[in-house]
């Protein structure tokens, strides 16, 4: 214990010495560098001199490790609260901030709607999103399983070809509408399970565990045309639990590898080993499931799902690539959906007047005993507004990342092509400059068409050609689950919901109170 303390102190002292030295060096070099920059800074036709990436304010950067120290033990912020770190940095440094990743690669964060719009509008044929390096590196190390780093991490023509293999069946509204009966029956079973697992005070503890299972079930239904668990009598199958745990670990360890010191590139750190173990677990279990679905289909001669059918029919992919694709799409829909549902229900629970208004709308459109149809969903303006407003106030993915495809000018800065830009749409949505009463949950604002000019701000599924291919399916599913839950329960929540950042915003220990309405 004592040795550990001494070692932590030594590390802290070293960093402080290094920080002082770097600060001194910067101060000494400021004057000659300032003159030099006047000659090299970009200018426009009117000879206006622009500031460069190096002029953007931000936390002090050290050689090699850049600003990643801020999340270390003695740094300013917590690794599991990166969302709060950005909030603090924007309020200290302004609308544009610079961080530096390994080898001092600049990463620019922006919150101003004008800059977000400039970046998202410049998107070309092959928009570039920085890859998740740890996944890409793992996939490259397993050529026996993967021939590419996946649609999420690839760029250019390889990305476009992977994306075109599957998305038509995922993104066309016609194809998604066909899923309505399955989503309804899945939602009924989910609600049945919640009733079984409630305690005597009607509390469902750690609700996020169940909503993640719902995410898994629906992703499997979407991609494979088959469910894994069945939600029978409140029992969650061991397989489903293992898959959800594996994905939870993937998110946590990717987050640590990304925001912490990237030591995993040199040695196999604990986080990296955990990441590999969770990838392997997911792959092995899912491979068995895919094989069994394939076997059943060969015997019956029909495909259970048009999405799965389209993967199987693809002549450009071999079976290894098909499995790799399934292993990428299913995990992508588990925690993203699970977290989004928790945030949505939390906001509904905390606003009883909204909940009653929503209940009245649903009961008017589909009274007891009447099944919900696509027509009802189209007419359910308040239901849609509640979901839209939840995406604005508590988005699961509060940030979109892009690599600039050409130079851009913003606020006297010239950001060159190739710069990594993080657009903090989640924080921009809570900014009074963009929305009145920005931090309040007011679905009514979406009943007013004038607020529809927020195209580049409310982007829970991203934007442009790299937009999430699961968007339409998830939107339909959220509407059905919310409508059914509000019809069945008075939803309550005591206290404030705790959140952490694990690559996406994640709820912690969400205990919902679900009293039956009747
Ligand atoms: C509530 C649920 C979900 C949320 C909040 C979500 C959010 C996102 C976001 C923000 C992106 C980045 C888009 C961009 O950079 O512009 C993305 C990409 C992606 N999502 Fe989702 N997603 C969800 C569900 C799903 C589902 C169900 C699937 C599977 C069908 C899926 C598959 C993917 C894939 C493959 C990409 C990468 C697309 C590309 O790079 O071309 N997501 N998602």
UniProtKB/TrEMBL annotation:
InterPro entries, per database record:
CYP11_CYP27_families (IPR050479), Cyt_P450 (IPR001128), Cyt_P450_CS (IPR017972), Cyt_P450_E_grp-I (IPR002401), Cyt_P450_sf (IPR036396)
Q: Give the originating organism.
A: Macrosiphum euphorbiae
Any Pfam family the entry gives: p450
Which CDD domains does its entry note?
Answer: CYP24A1-like
**Keyword Transmembrane helix on this protein?**
yes
Quote the Gene3D superfamilies the UniProt record gives.
Cytochrome P450
Record keywords, A-Z: Heme, Iron, Membrane, Metal-binding, Monooxygenase, Oxidoreductase, Transmembrane, Transmembrane helix
Q: Which PROSITE patterns match?
A: CYTOCHROME_P450
Obligatory cofactor(s): heme
GO molecular function, one example?
monooxygenase activity
- So what family is this one in? Belongs to the cytochrome P450 family.
Per UniProt, where does heme bind? 468
| Protein name, as recorded | Cytochrome P450
* Transmembrane annotation, as ranges: 6-29
Record keywords: Membrane included?
yes
């Amino acid at each position: 214990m004592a040795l550990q303390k001494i070692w932590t102190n030594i590390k802290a002292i070293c960093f402080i010495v290094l920080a002082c030295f770097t600060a001194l060096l910067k101060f000494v070099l400021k004057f000659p560098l300032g003159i030099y920059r006047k000659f090299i800074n970009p200018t426009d036709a009117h000879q206006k001199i622009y500031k460069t990436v190096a002029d953007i304010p931000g936390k002090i950067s050290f050689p090699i490790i850049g600003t990643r120290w801020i999340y270390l033990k003695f740094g300013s912020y917590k690794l599991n609260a990166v969302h709060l770190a950005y909030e603090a940095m924007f309020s200290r440094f302004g609308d544009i901030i610079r961080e530096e990743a390994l080898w001092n690669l600049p990463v620019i964060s922006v919150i101003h709607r004008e800059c977000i719009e400039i970046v998202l509008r410049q998107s070309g044929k092959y928009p570039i999103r920085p890859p998740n390096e740890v996944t890409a590196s793992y996939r490259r190390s397993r050529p026996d399983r993967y021939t590419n780093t996946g649609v999420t991490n690839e760029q250019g023509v390889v990305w476009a070809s992977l994306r075109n293999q599957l998305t038509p069946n995922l993104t066309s509204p016609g194809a998604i509408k066909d899923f309505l009966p399955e989503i309804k029956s899945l939602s009924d079973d989910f609600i049945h399970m919640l009733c079984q697992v409630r305690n005597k005070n009607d509390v469902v503890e750690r609700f996020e565990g169940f909503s993640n299972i719902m995410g898994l079930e629906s992703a499997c239904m979407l991609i494979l045309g088959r469910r894994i668990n069945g939600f029978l009598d409140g029992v969650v199958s061991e397989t489903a639990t293992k898959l959800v745990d594996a994905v939870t670990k993937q998110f946590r360890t990717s987050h640590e590898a990304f925001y912490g010191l990237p030591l995993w590139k040199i040695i196999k750190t604990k986080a990296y080993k955990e990441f590999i173990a969770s990838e392997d677990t997911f792959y092995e279990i899912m491979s068995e499931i895919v094989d069994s679905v394939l076997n059943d289909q060969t015997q019956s001669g029909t495909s259970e799902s048009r999405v799965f059918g389209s993967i199987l029919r693809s002549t450009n992919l071999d079976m290894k690539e098909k499995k790799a694709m399934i292993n990428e799409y299913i995990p992508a829909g588990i925690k993203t959906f699970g977290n989004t549902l928790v945030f949505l229900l939390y906001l509904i629970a905390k606003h009883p007047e909204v909940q009653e208004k929503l209940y009245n709308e649903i009961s008017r459109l589909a009274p007891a005993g009447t099944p919900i149809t696509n027509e009802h969903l189209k007419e359910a303006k308040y239901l849609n507004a509640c979901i839209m407003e939840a995406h604005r106030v508590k988005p699961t993915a509060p940030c979109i990342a892009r690599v600039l495809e050409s130079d851009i000018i913003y606020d006297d800065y010239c950001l060159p092509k190739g710069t990594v830009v993080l657009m903090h749409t989640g924080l921009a949505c809570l900014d009074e400059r963009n929305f009145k009463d920005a931090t309040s949950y007011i679905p009514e604002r979406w009943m007013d068409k004038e607020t529809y000019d927020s195209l580049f701000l409310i982007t829970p599924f991203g934007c442009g050609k790299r937009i999430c291919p699961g968007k339409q399916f998830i939107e339909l599913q959220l509407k059905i689950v919310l409508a059914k839950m509000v019809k069945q329960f008075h939803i309550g929540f005591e206290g404030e919901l705790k959140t952490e950042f694990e690559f996406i915003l994640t709820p912690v220990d969400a205990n919902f109170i679900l009293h039956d309405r009747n």
